[in-house]
Amino acid sequence: MEDEYLVVIDGKPQGPFTIEQLKGLNIGPGTFVKTRTMKDYKEVGEVEELCRLFGFSHQAIARPQYYASPDVRMLAVVIDYLLILVVYAVILVIVVSFIESKYLKIAVSLSGLPLVPITKIIMGIFMEASSRQATFGKSWLAIKVTDEQGRRISLGRSAARNLFKIVPVLTLGIGYLSGFFSKRQQCLHDKLAGTLVIKGRLV
């Protein structure tokens, strides 16, 4: 039995359609399709069978299809910081339990706070360059960091991306808000580093 395709038309999946029925639709290389055996939607230009059918050039590397919005990404950041703070609090409780002076306990507690954002940056650099391509927060929200062709980023690019985050901070958040007005949902640090944050399914 030949595969039948669901086709995204006007933003909504329709079908399934047989190969013969697809010929009567207004199909382009950027049209999203899916069969029952595919895990996710793909562009027609990524499906060799359909490229032959419609005479399109087959794309050897799958392009990113769905981009994570800044609000979802901010939620991932919040999750990461909460995890780090929990670990920090546990370590702090253990450390201060050996300190008798009340003022010294406060001093130790406050002096360790700068380690929280530093830990977040280091975590982002190594985890986003790993095979996971995401921090814990991003993974739990099914989003990941790629280059602009949808490939895993290098450690150097990951370091640049995470360090460039200081620019949106210095612009009082404007660099983050710019992601809402970007076609590919790129915040300022993504554009500077040449990265994308993508999600794995059509919603």
UniProtKB/TrEMBL annotation:
Organism domain of life: Bacteria
Coiled coil (UniProt feature): none
| Primary subcellular site in the record, as a coarse category | membrane
Q: Where are the transmembrane segments?
A: 74-99, 106-127, 163-181
The name on file for this protein is RDD family protein
Location relative to the cell? Cell membrane
Q: Name one GO cellular component term.
A: plasma membrane
What are the GYF domain coordinates in residue numbering? Answer: 6-50
The chain positions of domain RDD read: 67-194
Keywords of this entry: Cell membrane, Membrane, Transmembrane, Transmembrane helix
**Record membrane topology:** Multi-pass membrane protein
